[in-house]
Task: structure prediction
Amino acid sequence: MADHPARTLSDLLPRLERLMGRIESLVAAYTGGRTGRTGRTGQTGQTGRFGEADDVFADSIAFRWGKRGGRGCLEPIVHPDLVDLVDLFGLDREIGILERNTRQFVRGMPANNVLVWGERGTGKSSVVKGLLARFAGEGLRMIEVRRQDLTDLPEIVELLWDRPERFVLFCDDLSFMEDESIYLELKALLEGSLSARPDNVLVYATSNRRHLMPEKLADNTPRFSPDDDEIHPQETVEEKVSLSDRFGLSIGFYRITQDTYFRIVRHLVDQRGLDMDAGLLRRESLRWLQRASGRSGRVARQFVDDLEGRLKLGELP
Result:
């Protein structure tokens, strides 16, 4: 029996809308941002797009890819969270590698896509945001792309062709389940698509997972279980690591030492001008650490936030 016409139309409309959006992006790439429909690429301001008279990439350094009316658009971030890399302790090696790669990129030299992985709260996102603060003056721009918007990567990339700036697509806290296919656009952009990637675009992703996808103990054991009916289990394992392998640089972030934790606390306390006895500060920070999930820069900052509030309320000497 043929599908109901109304149902068929409702299925086609989202696809047609998406196709029109990509066609407009292609047209914009070759016409300097001018299209026949206002509010897409011919103006900035509330639409977040760029045009000839008002170049959003000159006015802002940080952006996020959003959706308005079902269509993707670049939205300038008015108040970006710019981190000073000097404030990050215990990460000298990791920062050095990322700085060098980013310096190569902004200066037009070959550079790699980057996967930053590790335990929560270890400074992965802060380091990436710190790179924007350090290199924005050399033309670096950062676009935050959320996990659910990865299917728009071809459209985003087309907007950036032939721009003089250097763009990092920032995918924060990225991970996928085994049965998801949304990661395929990212995989194609990194390497393997028929379409070329412009020289002015790189992907920096952070994740708590080294390979971005869940791994099972069975992946590393011989396949002789009667419950395992897969004929070629090694192919599944290869598929899981194939995405992370496409990042030229994979940098692990690990839990900091207790001494580094105290250094971060002391630095934040001095930075905020808080007057507190060193012995009391150490005891209070240890007490906070006992209730926390582990040692990290995030836990140190949370402690100092609480400490500053208690001092201002007069709850501590």
User: Anything to note?
Assistant: The longest strand covers residues 62-68. The chain has ten helices and seven strands.
